[in-house]
C-alpha cells in the first residue's frame, strides 16, 4: 500500500468518525426529558346522542320546510328547525336531533329502502338507541269498509303482505284465496305491537282535533260505506306492509284474509315499510317500544261505480283530496305522544309505564 493511499484512508476514517459522533450527539440532544415522556391525552369522542324518541318518515316532497309538505315537513318544523343535519353512511337522508333527545329522518319508500336506512342509523355509534321509542309515520291507503280519507291509525299489528305464495285467480277455484303462507317466515311476517304502548298512544291522541277539506268530504260520498263517509278520526288496527300498491276489492279482501290468517286484527291500513323497519329494530332492540302511525290519503279500491283501473288512473280533478290535511293530522296526533314521553321521561325511560285505571 502506498503512503498516499494510507493517507487517504486515514483522512476518510477521521471524516466518518466525525459524522458518527455528530449523529450520536444529535440523538442524545433529541432524547425526551422526563416531562415530555407523558403522552398527551387522546381527544375525547363526543358522547352519543341518547335518543328518547325517533320519528321516521318515508319521503319528503321537496325541502324540509317552506314548500308543499310531505311526510317529514311538519315533524321537522316542530322539532328540528334549528338542528344541524347528521349524515349517516348507508342512510338515505340525514338524521336530525334536538336537545330533548327527539331525533328523526326520512328513511325512503319501500321495504328495502326504509329498512336499510334504519339499520345504518341504528348501527351508527353517534346515537344511543338503548332506551328509544320509535314512531314510524307516513301516509297510506285504507279500505272503505274500515277507514276514511284524513283518518290517522295506530297499528296494533304489522303484517307483511308479500311473504308467501300467490297465484293468478284464473288458476284457482272461483272465489277461493290466491295466497298461501310459506314456511320459514313465521318470525318475519307479523309483529304484534306492544298493547300497553298502543293503549297509551290512543289515550294521548284520541281527542286530537283533525283537519279536513271540502274536496275530501265530497269524495267520501262516492262510497256507500259508513266508515268511508266518516270525518277523520283516530283509530287502530292492522297495518299491511307490501311493496305493491295493491288496488281493487279483490286484493283488499285478500289483505283482510291474510290478517285473519295470521291471527291479527282487522286490516285497516296499507303501507310499504313498517313491518320491514320493525324487523330491523327487533334484531337490535326488540319491538316493545315501536309504534306505527299512518294517515289515510286514499281508498284501496274504487267506489262501486268505478273500475279498479279508473281508480288507479283517475281523470283530472277526480282524486280524493285531503293530502295536505292528512300529513298535518299525522304530526298532530304523533306529537302528543312524543311530547308526553319526553316530558315524563323518568317514568318512560325504563319501559312503558302502567296506565292509571
Explain briefly what this protein structure is.
The chain is α/β, with parallel strands linked by helices.
Description:
With 357 residues, this protein is an alpha/beta fold. It has a single domain, classed as Nucleoside phosphorylase domain (Rossmann fold). 34% of the residues lie in helices and 19% in strands. The protein has helices spanning 3-30, 73-79, 111-123, 195-205, 214-220, 249-261, 274-285, 308-312, 323-343, 345-348, and strands at 49-50, 53-57, 95-97, 102-106, 127-128, 133-142, 152-160, 164-166, 179-181, 190-192, 234-241, 267-271, 290-299. The strands form 3 sheets. Strands 2, 3, 4, 6, 7, 10, 11, 12 and 13 form a 9-stranded mixed beta sheet that branches. A two-stranded parallel ribbon has the order 1-5. Strands 8-9 form a two-stranded antiparallel ribbon. Helix 6 (249-261) links the parallel strand 11 and strand 12 (267-271). Mean pLDDT is 89; it is low at 1-44. It comes from Pseudacidovorax intermedius. Residues 1-17 form the signal peptide. GO terms for molecular function: catalytic activity. It holds the Pfam family NUP. Keywords: Signal.
Amino acid at each position: 500500500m502506498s503512503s498516499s493511499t494510507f493517507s487517504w484512508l486515514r483522512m476518510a476514517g477521521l471524516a466518518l468518525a466525525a459524522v458518527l459522533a455528530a449523529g450520536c450527539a444529535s440523538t442524545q440532544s433529541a432524547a425526551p426529558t422526563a416531562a415530555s415522556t407523558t403522552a398527551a391525552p387522546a381527544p375525547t369522542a363526543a358522547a352519543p346522542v341518547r335518543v328518547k324518541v325517533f320519528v321516521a318518515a318515508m319521503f319528503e316532497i321537496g325541502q324540509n320546510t317552506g314548500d308543499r309538505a310531505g311526510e317529514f315537513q311538519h315533524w321537522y318544523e316542530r322539532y328540528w328547525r334549528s338542528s344541524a343535519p347528521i349524515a349517516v353512511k348507508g342512510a338515505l337522508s340525514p338524521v336530525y336531533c334536538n336537545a330533548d333527545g327527539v331525533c328523526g329522518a326520512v328513511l325512503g319508500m319501500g321495504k328495502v329502502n326504509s329498512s336499510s336506512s334504519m339499520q345504518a342509523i341504528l348501527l351508527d355509534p353517534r346515537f344511543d338507541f338503548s332506551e328509544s321509542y320509535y314512531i314510524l309515520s307516513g301516509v297510506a291507503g285504507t279500505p272503505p269498509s274500515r277507514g276514511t280519507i284524513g283518518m290517522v291509525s295506530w297499528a296494533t299489528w304489522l303484517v307483511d303482505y308479500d311473504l308467501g305464495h300467490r297465484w293468478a285467480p284464473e288458476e284457482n277455484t272461483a272465489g277461493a284465496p290466491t295466497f298461501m303462507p310459506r314456511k320459514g317466515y313465521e318470525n318475519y311476517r307479523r309483529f304484534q305491537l306492544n298493547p300497553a304502548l298502543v293503549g297509551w298512544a290512543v289515550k294521548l291522541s284520541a281527542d286530537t282535533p283533525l283537519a279536513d277539506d271540502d274536496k275530501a268530504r265530497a269524495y267520501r260520498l262516492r262510497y256507500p260505506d259508513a266508515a268511508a263517509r266518516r270525518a277523520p278520526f283516530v283509530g287502530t288496527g292492522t297495518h299491511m306492509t307490501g311493496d305493491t300498491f295493491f288496488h281493487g276489492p279483490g286484493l283488499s279482501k285478500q289483505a283482510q284474509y291474510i290478517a285473519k290468517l295470521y291471527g291479527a286484527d282487522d286490516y285497516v291500513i296499507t303501507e310499504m315499510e313498517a313491518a320491514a323497519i320493525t324487523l330491523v329494530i327487533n334484531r337490535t332492540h326488540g319491538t316493545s317500544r315501536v309504534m306505527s302511525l299512518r294517515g289515510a290519503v286514499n281508498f284501496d279500491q274504487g267506489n262501486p261505480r268505478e273500475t279498479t283501473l279508473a281508480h288507479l288512473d283517475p281523470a283530472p280533478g277526480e282524486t280524493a283530496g285531503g293530502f295536505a290535511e292528512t300529513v298535518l293530522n299525522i304530526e298532530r296526533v304523533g306529537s302528543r305522544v312524543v311530547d308526553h314521553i319526553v316530558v315524563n321521561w323518568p317514568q318512560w325511560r325504563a319501559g312503558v309505564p302502567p296506565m292509571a285505571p
